[in-house]
Amino acid sequence: MTDDKNTMEDLVSLCKRRGFVYPASEIYGGINGFWDFGPLGVQLKNNIRDHWWKSMVECTPAGPDGQPLQIVGLDSAIIQNPKTWEASGHVEGFNDPMVDCRECKTRFRVDKIATVTFSKDGDEILSTHIETESASTAFEDAIASLNSKQRKLLKKAGNDVKTSARFLNDTGDGSAVACPLCGGELTEPKMFNLMFETFVGAVRNDDARAYLRPETAQGIFLNYKNVLDTMRVKVPFGVAQIGKAFRNEITPRNFVFRSREFEQMEMEFFCHPDESGRWYEFWKQHRMEWWKSLGISEQNLRFREHGKEELAHYSDACVDIEYRYPFTAPDFGELEGIAHRGCFDLSAHQDYSKIKMEYFDHGGKEADDSRYIPHVIEPASGLTRGTLVLLCEAYTPDPDRPSGVYMKFDPKFAPIKAGILPLVARDGMPEKAVGLYMDLRKDFMVELDIKQNIGKRYARQDEIGTPFCFTIDGQTGEDGTVTVRYRDSLQQERINIDGVKKFLAEKL
Ligand code: ATP
């Protein structure tokens, strides 16, 4: 991946051109914050999804004692009883404070605006707040509006001018008065609830109001007792779920990074309160290793522990796994959050539903010890954001090849594992290619591409990140060999057509 500021634009255009991601409702002018995954995008996303499910549910990680953990799967409804979201705090608290610019009408999330606040005389920096998912468009303008004294002050304060390029003047009482983009007047902050509402049934009144889930996690808490009563699990155990979540984000942006409909992969790990600190550490490390196992380079990943002021009142600790996206670089943005949620959710649902959420530990030594509400460690990651990360990570400009760029996916996650290409569409070559394709497709996601000149077909396979191409040519008819072309090295070698399946199995 490169830091080129055009990388994101190029990547978005490649995604569209090659069938990874399309703007939703494009023929009607699109709809802000929604995206459709095309044929290759859905394949890539499913590969990540399946890998998470496999390593979380079907082949659970080994715990600190070397024994496999108990984690079971779930697929709960997107619409639940609205009391769910009262208990979880989403109805009351799932708000972002927003300000609008009265001039250019841009809407900002107050806590996401990058601001440097200077004192009235401009001699002093009162505060800096650097946006992490910065859209770089206004940087040049904002930098130009700085006077040299302010530039020096910023430098002295150790700030990279590029990332701190939006400036608010200070009124003296600390409140922001100017739009970071145009300098216009800002409105007072207003709260926006991020949940999408709908109505269940024929009547559209308050009693029929329901919400599209803003996270998959609550469906797990709602089923905690069901799982406990039906699945022979004992604390500590986990319940995992993958599915859509919906948030009416005020400022959807940065491609699929912040969208209004996205997918999450969440797991709630129920444990004894005394052991929750240990499990928090366990999951923190484990999740970081998992992301690395997708072929993401170490220098593009980092932890960011939440400060005390950032933590929800019930939470003991929270850490984000962050990725260095092209639009945040050199800074990082969230990919997954691992939260110590204490017993907040189960206790809240116990209060609202009057159903006991206590766990009875038959093996508890002392009476006090045997009944408790488990504590929860929650690794909550974005499948949509994970897909974006693999796209960013794979994007590799290469002026030496005709496509000018190739997608360097780890072969395990590449949407298409191999392209099968007859050199020309005659002389029995297509027939042989079809034969190979019919054999391979039972085991691997492969693509048969017959028409057009071979250079164009290779270029396309490079751009969609296919790690291997098998080419059937004149020699195939004579000695039964095909050419293997390696995506990364561009090397070619001949192997026997009968050995292709084994070759792929070994490489994948
Ligand atoms: P952010 O601070 O970026 O808004 P968050 O802390 O609210 O995210 P969580 O509620 O912890 O996010 O959700 C878990 C994961 O879900 C995030 O780490 C992210 O990968 C994903 N996610 C959250 N909101 C969005 C969104 N609007 N679009 C895409 N993915 C999202």
Low-confidence stretches: 129-141, 158-177
Category by helix and strand content? alpha+beta
Radius of gyration from CA coordinates: 26 Å
Residues in β-strands, percent: 15-25%
Compute the number of helices.
15
- How many runs of DSSP E, i.e. beta strands? 26
Distance between the terminal alpha carbons, to the nearest Å? 22 Å
Average pLDDT, all residues: 87
* Main beta sheet strand tally, sense and closure: 7 strands, mixed
What level of helicity do the residues show? 25-40%
- What is bound: which ligands? adenosine-5'-triphosphate
What would you call the shape? Answer: globular
Keywords:
alpha+beta, globular, 26 strands, seven-stranded mixed sheet, 508 residues, binds adenosine-5'-triphosphate, single chain
Task: Summarize the model shown.
With 508 residues, this protein is an alpha+beta fold.
